[in-house]
Amino acid sequence: MNKAILSILGQDRPGIVAAVSKVLFEQDCNIENVSQTTLQFVFAGIFIVSMPGNLSSESLRQNLTAELAPLALEVYITLFESTTVPVSPPRSEAYIVTTKGPDRKGLVAGISEVIARFEGNITNLQAVFKGGNDPGDNIMIYEVDVPPQTDQQALYQELKKRAHELALDIDIQHRNIFEAIHRI
Questions:
Q1: Interior CA angle at 74 toward 71 and 76, to 5°?
Q2: What is the chain's alpha carbon radius of gyration, rounded to the nearest angstrom?
Q3: Contact between 9 and 38 (Cβ < 8 Å)
């Protein structure tokens, strides 16, 4: 079986996931992972699928494009190289970094630069910017994997410093604590 990464983009509307998954099922593909979101009015979906050996990525793209044409969606397919898939993920500690503050350019760049400098890996980022100065309207939530060799106290201090420079309130919690506090 071959693996492929499918990126589906276009105006959001009901039925997109159903249409994509129908074509994948009909082409004997298996969805292994999917991440889908709506950004303002744009649907963005990424699917990792295993494909049967007799199905080319071009044939899959043509079938998806034909089925999704009425929905005006763009389809992009990249084949997975088996050498690029790590055998096991590196050990890390998971943290949730939340910022709130006035909207302006450079907020994501400022926080993500600090995380990268400490070799943190942002595994998920949700950013909602409604503009204006109401901090509750402008929130970013980073899920970050931090390697065990990272000086976590130094990372914490640098994130606090950068947040202050950007006029952001920041909260940093281990994922386990975050989930325990926010459990319903």
A1: 140
A2: 20
A3: no
Under a CB-based contact definition with an 8 Å cutoff, are residues 5 and 47 in contact? Answer: yes
User: What is the pLDDT at residue 85?
Assistant: 54
What are the backbone angles phi and psi of residue 106, rounded to the nearest 5°?
Answer: 95, 0
CATH code for residues 93-181: 3.30.70.260
Where in the chain are the domains? 2-84, 93-181
* Residues paired with 141 in a beta bridge: 98, 126
pTM, rounded to two decimals: 0.75
Classified as helix, coil or strand, 120 is coil
Instruction: Provide the CATH topology of domain 2-84.
Output: Alpha-Beta Plaits (3.30.70)
pLDDT tens, residue by residue, 131-177 = 666 656 789 999 999 999 999 999 999 999 999 999 999 999 887 77
Evaluate the CA torsion angle 144, 146, 152, 155 in order and state its sign: negative
Over residues 105-119, the pLDDT tens digits come to: 899 999 999 999 999
Q: Do domains 2-84 and 93-181 have the same CATH topology?
A: yes
Cross-strand bridge partners of residue 126: 141
